[in-house]
Design brief:
Elements: H1 2-19, H2 23-36, H3 42-58, H4 64-79, H5 84-101, H6 106-122, H7 124-145, H8 150-167, H9 172-189, H10 203-212
Helix pairs in contact: 2-3, 3-4, 4-5, 4-6, 5-6, 6-7, 6-8, 7-8, 8-9, 8-10, 9-10
């Protein structure tokens, strides 16, 4: 009898979660994810990041809008002529805020490492000794939190390759991780449909890393 009561309670919770899905939230997220993929300049990047922040304000229990706002800032700092340190720092603050909503989240941990990797790239000579271990620790933690997260593996591979090139060592470890990431992306692609709003980015980076290993 207890077994059946447990099953009924489980179904009730899950049906409640489905009922609580907000079509307006999902529509807004999909619209801004599309806009994020079409960014061509710093102004557009800022507008998309701010749009995600407005979604976050209206949905204070959701971590994804903060995640995408941070990702937009990170990518914008890499691509455009902005105050890069400031943008990376702003992204880290958003990631920390999102982590309060969703603790031990592999996607957020990996993104934190990505932002720190960006800061490191601005001055690798003076920042490398202090920041490199932090970045590697975050990527390692992200992988341990979810071994099926291809972005965590891709970013670790990217960091490993950068360090190999900097120190003049072999790329074998980075290349192996890039190939693992590509397999993880293939598995992830089976989960993606039109309603999917969780992170899917990074496959192009993994492909580029793998090509450099050929």
């Amino acid at each position: 009898m207890k077994k059946y009561l447990f099953i009924l309670a489980f179904l009730a919770v899950n049906l409640s979660n489905v009922a609580q899905a907000d079509p307006a939230y999902e529509s807004a997220m999909k619209s801004q994810i599309q806009a994020m993929n079409e960014i061509t300049d710093a102004q557009a990047s800022a507008e998309v990041a701010n749009a995600f922040l407005r979604i976050a304000e209206a949905n204070s229990n959701e971590w994804l809008p903060l995640y995408y706002a941070a990702l937009t800032k990170i990518e914008g700092a890499f691509r455009f002529d902005v105050n890069k340190d400031q943008e990376f720092d702003s992204a880290i603050e958003l990631i920390q805020e999102a982590s309060e909503i969703s603790p031990n989240n592999s996607e957020l941990t990996a993104l934190h490492g990505y932002a720190l990797m960006g800061k490191l790239s601005l001055d690798p000579v003076s920042r490398g000794q202090s920041m490199s271990p932090q970045v590697m620790q975050l990527f390692g933690l992200a992988i341990n939190q979810d071994r099926e997260n291809p972005r965590a593996v891709t970013l670790m591979a990217q960091m490993e390759l950068g360090m190999a090139e900097f120190f003049g060592s072999g790329p074998q470890k980075a290349c192996g991780m890039a190939r693992i990431a590509l397999d993880l992306y293939k598995s992830e692609s089976a989960k993606i449909d039109e309603s999917y709003i969780h992170p899917t980015w990074g496959v192009e980076t993994a492909e580029e890393l793998a090509k450099r290993c050929q």
